[in-house]
Sequence to fold (159 residues):
Amino acid sequence: MANQPGAVGGVGQVKFSPNSRNVLPGKVVFTVDIRTPDQAKLDRMRAEIERKAALICDELGVGCAVEAVGHFDPVTFDPTLVGRVRAAAEKLGLSHMNIISGAGHDACWAAKVAPATMIMCPCVDGLSHNEAEDISKEWAAAGADVLLHAVLETAEVVA
Fold:
């Protein structure tokens, strides 16, 4: 929480070996996913995780190795397009808020070669990026309507 606002982190996967309910594992491998749009903050968060992991493992007398996988620098979306999405939501009377994703969505890769932004729709019970994720037809239609209006404004088509 010391890295707020605008930073998140979580452990997404843990593997124990051996994986038995009555045996202490000899090896544990887990992922730590950290995200923030601020590169300097991201670097500080990573350094802190690596430093504290080493301290904890030293105190417990166990080995520790950290391997960076799947890293990509933060992406900032095009402010004009973000504004058009926001304006479309307001025009349609829809609630909206800026959010920080940090996930490697296709739009992040597209933003390397062209202006890009994203429209996120709410999910039932707030459950997102999960096999049980669900969205109402109304929320999906509202998201598509926002997209349509933002595209029409970008294309300078009167709607």
